[in-house]
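Subgroup meeting minutes
Present: P.N., E.W., G.H.
Scribe: E.W.

1. P.N. recapped why we're keeping a running log of single-chain structure predictions: easier to compare across weeks, and new members can see raw inputs and outputs side by side.
2. G.H. added today's entry (189 aa).
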Amino acid sequence: MKNKLETATLAGGCFWCTEAIFRRLKGVISVLPGYAGGNPPAGGKNPSYAQVCSGSTRHAESIQIEFDPSLLSFEKILDIFWHTHNPTTLNQQGNDIGTQYRSAIFYHNQKQKEIAEKSKTEFEEEKVYLDPVVTEITPFTNFYIAENYHKNYFERNKNKSYCNFVINPKIQKLLKNYGNIIKEEYRQF
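Output recorded in log:
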């Protein structure tokens, strides 16, 4: 009997980073980069990267994770989410600035909402950061898959500067702190 899969939609800055992190986890079936939480585009078309970067669509660079909750809980996904980006900077992650880089959890049902709110409170109580957490917890409304060149970006561009200086340290932190739930093919960096 096949386990029922669930979906999580998260925004934690650049989707090249978040996709690279979450695709490494046992229990994750797929991760897609895209755009969530914005205004429906005119004519029903997907918003483009340029439109999202302009800020006019109000979308966040996001990932949509399909996962097996019998192998990886939504709680664990959020634990990793909190600890692999800075949820205290409004509309910014490092040098990436704009509403498209905001921190957000787009919940798909009431249970996810409750888990997200509890998780946020627990993370704030850890005092990892001195500043308050500004992550939005908002209902899922839409997700538009990003252009093909964004998919699996880190794996295809490991030697580029952004990957070396921004994504690699996040992957190293993931391996160090969550090594026991990393897929075998990603254990060696």
